[in-house]
Write a structure and sequence with these properties.
The structure is a homotrimer. By secondary structure, the first copy, chain A, is mostly beta strands. Helices cover 1% and strands 52% of the residues of chain A. Chains in contact: A-B, A-C, B-C.
Chain lengths: 294, 294, 294
């Protein structure tokens, strides 16, 4: 997909004190190559090409995830979609053209599918299993930051373990829950998530997420985030809103409350979107732009 | 497209005193992904993969240009095709397998679509507009070498502004004109171009280009270039020729005259070509090779 | 294609003393773009995108090979498939999921198609010719490690010359022979190969390879390798085995004998494979995994 827009962040937050308003674009291609054996097992590989504003050139292609799917089960090896990051409702409060929720997004560190490169951790390897049956999805994942075993005692080289479970009822209620241990390879950086969403009707949804964000260093306590969100659609227009509360005590934080409102206009194949958000540092940010899929 | 051939340049000009004759190839893929909304707006993204002789590997992909096209107008954001560089006749005196005109090509610096990478200027962003109606094409472009605003006073960080206009009459006459200000981000590096071409009949064309090349440093005056060129086709064979005059005074220049002759043989899907040129340093260069499109 | 599996190598041979067992995957895409002229000449370009375990990201794309094919002859320029490396039976004793033969693979250095990058030797250029007529294939190749001529006296900058010839008879016998001079650009690093294979019936083949491995340095004598191998198929399962003898005297070598046994299970579109091998350092290695093509 491609997206481009204007991104304003108070106090030149994103440019180290330079301009507050910038053009910010992203272009992403997902390559998915598959083959099916005579016995019905599907083997495939998936990786991404991506360019973000500020990159000198397109990325050369993320490390791939190689997978085998049979019946309800898919097994991934390599650069895997981790269980915690894949929980259905974890990012449900995101809005605007850059799909962000300054208040509601998880604040902790955990492994996810790497968009571009493993960077320093070239010997990282992951294993993930996904089970899908109707409206139930269960996932478990394991990521070893260094399979050579030469850094067993290094900081940030613990094995990460994660699991998540999603379920949706016919009456419009969805539940999503996840946990990750040693997040991003940091010992005892454990995080938990529970989220619920209810579709009032075809055009209105409300939800609530609770996230325990874990912590990497002793000085920063990322605390617990509670976010309430909702969205409302009317013809081609839809509105998003959230209010979030975080009780943590970390550097840069000046308030416990964050909120955001957003609007989308569906062009049929593309989407105009805008949002206004205030983060936990009491800084305002505004984005607006267009996003489309190929 | 792909091309390969032999490139001779007197005095080892291209190898720092080494061999004068080299194999020189290029491989370029243009990726263009688009989607069309219900209302008829076309959104797309375009970038290039390229390999040139002397590169250790294919480039990872140029930064992209994201665009929206509706009716006669196309708007580009990102790595944009700049107005000056896109002027229809600016490079009409090029010949041979490497599409070069030692005498007639513009000598000044200006931004164009980056083939591989922004290199140091990762915060570059451009905006371009193109209007097309029949045989009229008008373009305007703006390139900011650093949108963070952290280098406002640096040399080479001015905003570049450019415009160009092409028109073709039914009687065979084409006009093309362009201007660029603060070319390539250098203050007062302003360049101008006027070109005319006349198609005598289906097989013969003559043209004239006038280019004011601007200048980056005070010591080098790139002067003004006047080039006369023509080409003549006969069955599968066509001939090119140009004579050029540059009145500038820059390091390496030893004469005001440059010229070139070239020949092409159309294979139907591929093209054999060769050219012999003498540049402003009185050095001869000869190229020959094959070029094809996918 | 893609492949992934477990790779055990005794004594942490591959991790510098770390873990002996690792996940090891590879993903490779071969890009082949072609066009055919009206006169029937096929022009094309070929390169690879590849990721190997331990790489931070996909490679940006190997340098390409540009080729023209007409009738029985194909001419390559650039990153060419070299004649020695392409000899049909040279690697016939390979087995397992990683297609390796610790004992039977050639030990010497020679140029081959670069999977990812020319690395330091950016001015390398190759030329190769292939002639094919029925079951006869003849190849010749030339690789100049630095066409600028600025390193004529450097070590490892000699021109490599190679040739190979394959022939197969109707009765099941195949012969393959090859030679390379100044292998990998090292003066007098000459290598020779003769191989024969006989298909006893549709399910059983035996073969023998003789390789003179040349040498780069005076202290290491890579000697001559003789390898006997065979494979046997039974329904979806096939078995491989080899015994090899090398009479060289090089650092790390502790025995003249190496052997390996392997097994494959065909899934129809994918392949499970495993092998157990002992190398010339008396180290055991075991691999097992799955491989599939797109």
């Amino acid at each position: 997909f491609g997206r481009t827009g204007l991104f304003y962040y108070e106090n030149g937050h994103r440019t180290g004190g330079g301009n507050s308003t910038q053009v910010s674009s992203r272009l992403r291609f997902i390559v998915n190559a598959t083959t099916i054996t005579d016995s019905g097992v599907k083997f495939g590989a998936r990786f991404r090409w991506q360019w973000d504003q500020g990159d000198a050139a397109m990325s050369s292609g993320s490390p791939p995830s190689i997978y085998a799917a049979f019946d309800h089960v898919t097994v991934y090896v390599g650069n895997v979609p981790t269980a915690f990051d894949s929980a259905n409702l974890l990012k449900a409060s995101q809005m605007g053209i850059y799909d962000r929720s300054e208040g509601g997004d998880p604040l902790g560190d955990f492994f996810s599918f790497e968009n571009k490169s493993y960077r320093g951790r070239v010997n990282r390897v992951g294993l993930a299993v996904e089970y899908e049956a109707g409206s139930l999805v269960a996932r478990a994942s394991f990521v070893n930051p260094d399979q050579t075993g030469n850094n067993e005692d290094g900081i940030g080289f613990e094995e990460e373990l994660g699991a998540s479970l999603d379920y949706a009822w016919d009456n419009g209620l969805s539940l999503s829950t996840a946990a990750v241990f040693n997040g991003s390879g940091y010992k005892d950086n454990d995080q938990y998530f529970v989220g619920a969403q209810f579709a009032v009707n075809d055009n209105a949804r409300v939800g609530m997420n609770f996230i325990n964000n874990g912590s990497i260093t002793e000085s920063d306590d990322l605390g617990q985030t509670l976010v309430l969100y909702g969205n409302l659609a009317w013809k081609s227009v839809s509105f998003d809103a959230y209010v979030a509360n975080n009780d943590g005590d970390w550097s840069g934080k000046t308030t416990d409350q964050a909120y955001g409102i957003g609007v989308n206009y569906d062009l049929g194949g593309a989407r105009l979107a805008a949002s206004l958000q205030r983060d936990y540092s009491e800084l305002l940010s505004i984005d607006t732009g267009v996003r489309f899929s190929f």
